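User: Batch of two.

Assistant: Item 1 of 2:
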Amino acid sequence: MYINSSDISLSDNDNLIVWKYLDLSKFLDMLLSEKLFMSRSDKFEDQYEGTFSEPTFEEIKKIAASNPKFLDYYKSHREKVVISSWHANEYESFAMWQIFTKNNEGLAIQSTIGRLKTALKAEKHFEQHIGNVNYIDYKKEYIPFEDTFFPFLFKRKSFQYEREIRIISDVSTSKISLNDGLKIDVDINQLIEKVYIHPKSENWYKNLVTEMVKKLGYTISIEKSDLESDILI
């Protein structure tokens, strides 16, 4: 099945709610540095990250037969692309709490597509893109490759529960060297609309996070997740 590249886009609904689930240390690092950490694409747990589906790979192999550097480029390119993943959902996700936080001490940043767009500061040294991830059958469906961002906007159907929106940066045209990833400049007050504390955390933990955020000079609204609210009978 061929996927038209015009279908690869970002929702035009700037009010679409997105979430990032993370631990306290990563959250505080974001506030202290005023930067958003982006992971190198080849360091993701999914080994298919930034690769091609079988139909696309067969086409690329034909091109590479007369131009071996063509395939080598795509293999090495993954080392030059960094990604920040966000979960699109109107509500909190129990599954995301389970997957991305540990020991009942994580938190979730609530934002919107519009906030992501305005929070990102202009980069002079590399390209940046925000897009929806498309979930496809890698054995049957074709991934366009006329744009170097496209391979990073596709994942296997088994990951559909992630409902992922991605910020993608490509530093291949710059002299930036990457280890595990890259921190990019963001406007924290624009990026974060609200913070939710882990539903199973103790009250002292919420108070700790609130106090630390206040001491860092931010006026971010912090709430306890209501996924564990009292049952009314």
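Item 2 of 2:
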Amino acid sequence: MGVTLEDNAGAVAAFPATSRFMSLKRNESGSELVEFALALSVVLACVFGIIDGSRAVFAEHYVVNAAREATRYAMVRGSSWNGTACTTPATFSCTATSAQVTSFVNSNIPPGIMSSKVGVVTTWPGTTSTGAACDTVNGTDSPTCVVSVQVTYAFAFSLPFLPQSAINFSSTSTSTIFQ
């Protein structure tokens, strides 16, 4: 069975196309499944993208908060500090050292943050908050001197369609030592 077409002059032309081909062309069964698969792919990509983006915001928030907390830890443990915690283990005792500040940050890492990618740099520049030289008779961690803590984290997205290179989050917090 062939298909016939009639032109304006009334001539009839026959084509070898079968009715089966024409019926397949009009058959739309299964199209909903294809549309659903495409829509689901887009929706899932968006959902997982939002989850990975939220992980990035969480990591950035952690870095900022860790720098603030580490600075506070160091500023209350200056050279004149004589708190009761001086009898506790060496990692959290008396005056703060760079290693102790790093240990403090590493002890407060939440789930989802890889400790191997966290970096901590603590400095006591020997100046006041105005930039003038401070009294360093008892060391650069004397009261009125400044302590600065920088925390970094190399974050990597886990989804293949997001950037694969690490995003480096960094936060520096500076405060005046008061004990």
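The mean pLDDT is 81.
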